[in-house]
Amino acid sequence: MSDLKNNFNKKGQVTIFIIIAIVIIVGLGIFFLVRGSFQKSSIPASIEPAYNSFLTCLQDDALVGIDVLESQGGYIETPAFYPGSAYMPFSSHLDFLGTGIPYWYYVSGNNVQKEQVPEKSEMASQLGSFIEGKIRDCVFDSYIENGFVILMGEPKAKVKINDEDVDVTLGMDLIIEKGDDRAIIKDHDVNVKTKLGSLYDSAVELYDYEQEKLFLEDYAVDVMRLYAPVDGVKISCSPLVWNANEVFENLSQAISANTQALKAKDGAYELKNKVDKYFVIDKNFGNEVRFLNSPEWPSAFSVTPAEGSLLISKPVGNGPGMGIMGFCYVPYHYVYDIKYPVLAQVSSGDEIFQFPMGVVIMGNLPREAMKGSTPFNLDVPDICQYSNTLTGVNVYNTKMVPLDADISYQCASLKCDMGKASEGWLQADFPQCVNGFVLARAEGYADKKVMYSTVSSGRVDILMDRIYDIEVDLNVDGKAFDGQAIVSFISENNSATAVYPNMKKIKLLEGQYEILVYIYKNSSITLGATTNHQCIEVPSDGLAGIFGGKKEECFDYNMPAQVISNALAGGGKENYYVVESELENNNVVEINAASLPTPKTIEELQNNYILFEEKDLGITFKR
User: Fold this and answer.
1) Nearest-10 Cα torsion for 505, 507, 510, 514
2) What is the DSSP string of 367-398?
3) Is residue 317 very low, low, confident or very high in pLDDT (cuts 50, 70, 90)?
4) How many other C-beta atoms can be found within 10 angstroms of the C-beta atom of residue 394?
5) How is domain 383-464 classified at the CATH fold level?
6) How many helices and strands (H and E) does the chain possess?
7) Are the CB atoms for 347 and 290 separated by under 8 Å?
8) Which of 30, 34, 162, 580 is the most buried (most CB within 10 A)?
9) Residue 57 predicted with pLDDT over 90
């Protein structure tokens, strides 16, 4: 019986030890689980001000990082920079007040569409890395001077971006001592009030809306048609002439003003008239939205057809054999490529999240919309990344003097910048291409394009023609002329036009030219209103039409009365080969033309065009 009792006592002692061990283990687990909060709540009063300063520093670092994210399109560490080109002005970043902001959408210099839209998780990761890099720079000089010892371990930050705030958890051993008081804190939490998450969501919604609807491109087309000659007809017997540089300047200013007038629908705007309504995007993005553009930002404008810097549309109906028309008119149709950046800003109070996008108009039409906003690069082959054919380029002028020139290579629609020929020589790895073109550009010389296949290593020689500034001196019937005239030098490689009397300077290079001089004088040819009867053949009705049968339909059309105020009154044409020595040794081309009778009727005007074909010109180069 005593043995049984002893065994029972021993088992009871073992059980008690086991229970005690479990209690100790659980206690230790609870201790380590709440250690951080326990330590924070038990921070000695003498140390608490220093720790509060640390938390303030942590919050300030987070605020600085958030500000950088908002100002740089969601990036702290921006993607690699890639330059633009003369064809596509966009680099991968927009320089805004000295800050390079990555484009969310742009077209690269070699015509490849690209996206750079950051994910919210990537923003949180970059903000965490930013805090880790800054937190050890917190300044505690005043505490150290008062006897504090402050030591920091390696930081590891976790960030969560919410709509109305950002949560930051920093894991880092922080030791603070003063006298006999000591605290070790491992985890540090701050909550930063910011609308970063909400602004980012609105920005992505705005970006996706632009990619789907291309509303910025639609506004660009409207501006183009309002502020530039695109297509139309004007009753006139003299040409219509525009200066392309002035057209581009007007477009640039108009784009900037109209872009800044855009706003998003949020109920805060009172739409007083149709103009107000036109500038409001019919969508609410949850936060205030505005758009910026500056004429100083990189942009590109081009137009065809053009003669140098001039857009010239010639009249129809006043030439020989056209008398049946009974009137003159000038039709015009110009095709524009327009590329420029827009900076979108989404704001709430004092916070602004901004990102740039490229706006692209090609051939008078908006670019094609992209599908979605997730891929960084479209699946378009970028041949410039695969340059592996060693190629040499020699560049000379016509006197075999080496030239410094910018060299690029064009394969189909893709264009790669290859570098600069220094003292006439460039050797570089070119992308492989059959029947591509080596392009050379040098100051003071006409651009040169040479077909060259780069399937194997080799060398290409390029001869460039120098461009000379020449002033046109026009004489009519042996006397100096200062009236209205158009002087055109037309060749396969170069065309130039002077518009008298305001634009007399042209740029010429050696070559065969057809020189045309049209002299205009004021006239008052009045054409009365007329009604013309015209018949045309149209498909027949019914079965006969199916088998090609036709019938005649006639109709009348009315021509309004008109006055022709400018009429052809002189000029002529001449084929002339301009040699470089004439351009090199002279700066004036003297042209002698003959006058024609000032027409008073449409018949006399048409007769002048017949006489014009028989008139020669005298061409003399002089200093």
Assistant:
1) -70
2) PPPPS-S--SB-S---GGGGEEEEEEEEEEET
3) low
4) 16
5) Immunoglobulin-like (2.60.40)
6) 12, 37
7) yes
8) 580
9) yes
Residue-by-residue DSSP string for 180-213? TEEEEEEEEEEEEE--HHHHHHHHHHHHHHHHHH
Burial call 362-379: b when 16+ CB within 10 Å, e when fewer: eebebbeebeeeeeeeee
Contact 445, 403 (CB under 8 A): yes
Angstrom distances, CA of residue 588 to CA of 65, 398, 510, 583, 619: 63, 22, 15, 9, 11
Distance of alpha carbon 216 from alpha carbon 431, whole angstroms: 35
Decide if 436 contacts 418 (C-beta within 8 A).
no
Q: How far apart are CA 396 and CA 245, in angstroms?
A: 30
| Rama region for 204: left / alpha / beta (φ>0; ψ in -120 to 50; rest) | alpha
* Residue 545 tokens, joined: 């039409």
Q: Which two tokens stand for residue 313?
A: 């549309």
pLDDT digits (tens, 9 = 90+) for 206-224: 999 999 999 999 999 999 9
Distance separating alpha carbons of residues 553 and 69, to the nearest angstrom? 69
Q: Which two tokens stand for residue 206?
A: 């705005």
- Select the more confidently predicted residue: 521 or 167: 167
| pLDDT higher than threshold 90 for residue 41 | no
Residue 502 burial (CB count, 10 A) = 9
> What residues are paired with 457 via a beta bridge?
none
pLDDT digits (tens, 9 = 90+) for 414-458: 788 899 999 999 999 999 888 899 999 999 999 999 999 998 999
Judged on CB neighbours under 10 Å (0-12, 13-18, 19+), 24 is exposed
Is residue 583 within 8 A of residue 621, CB to CB? The reply is yes
Q: What percent of the chain has pLDDT over 90?
A: 60
User: What is residue 565's DSSP assignment?
Assistant: E
Q: Is the dihedral of CA 248, 249, 252, 254 positive or negative?
A: negative
Confidence of residue 78 (pLDDT cuts 50, 70, 90): very high
How many C-beta atoms surround the C-beta of residue 515 within 10 A? 20
Alpha helices in 75-162 (DSSP H): 120-134, 141-145
Q: How many CA atoms lie within 13 A of 519 on its CB side?
A: 27
Residue 133 pLDDT > 90, yes or no?
yes
Amino acid, single-letter form, for residue 11: K
Q: Are strands 550-559 and 530-539 parallel, antiparallel or unpaired?
A: antiparallel
Q: What is the pLDDT of residues 370-421, one digit of tens each?
A: 654 333 333 444 677 778 899 999 999 999 999 999 999 988 767 888 999 9
Tokens matching residue 7: 């065994």
pLDDT at 544: 55
| Residue from 35, 167, 27, 156 nearest 43 by CA | 35
Integer Cα distance of 500 and 484 in angstroms: 5
Assess contact for 569 and 604: CB atoms under 8 A.
Answer: no
- Give the residue range(s) of CATH 2.60.40.10 domains in the chain: 383-464
- Beta-sheet pairing, 484-490 with 511-527: antiparallel
CA atoms within 13 A on the CB side of 562: 16
